[in-house]
Specification:
Number of domains: 2
Largest sheet: none
Oligomer: single chain
Structural class: mainly alpha
Low-confidence stretches: none
Number of strands: 0
Distance between the termini: 49 Å
Order of helices and strands: HHHHH
Helix content: over 70%
Mean pLDDT: 90
């Protein structure tokens, strides 16, 4: 029973902290630099989630031609820089991964 109380307590504290930032804070009173920095939160979180899967697909960092995910990720990054659209990056990255797996895998 105490495990459940701890889980519920941690959930309430976490929810309270996040909700207080949204409910009690006035976003128009934040400094301009802070508001600009907030625009980079989502891309940085996504990069933190995706990067380990590209660099270490099997648990160890592999920067070698055998790491097909990293090569496909680099293709997706190049397309994203060139065309500035997430859809093109996703399609090109998946197409590159499937092509590499078909040819070399």
């Amino acid at each position: 029973m105490t495990h459940w109380l701890v889980i519920v307590g941690v959930a309430l504290v976490t929810f309270g902290l996040r909700a207080s930032f949204i409910v009690f804070a006035d976003p128009h009173r934040f400094p301009h630099a802070f508001r600009q920095a907030l625009t980079f939160v989502a891309p940085s979180v996504l990069a933190a989630i995706v990067a380990p899967g590209l660099a270490a697909p099997e648990g160890a960092i592999v920067f070698a031609p055998q790491n097909l995910r990293l090569i496909a990720g680099l293709v997706a990054i190049a397309v994203a820089i060139r065309f500035r659209t997430p859809f093109a990056a996703i399609v090109s990255g998946m197409a590159a991964l499937w092509a590499l797996q078909g040819l070399l895998g």
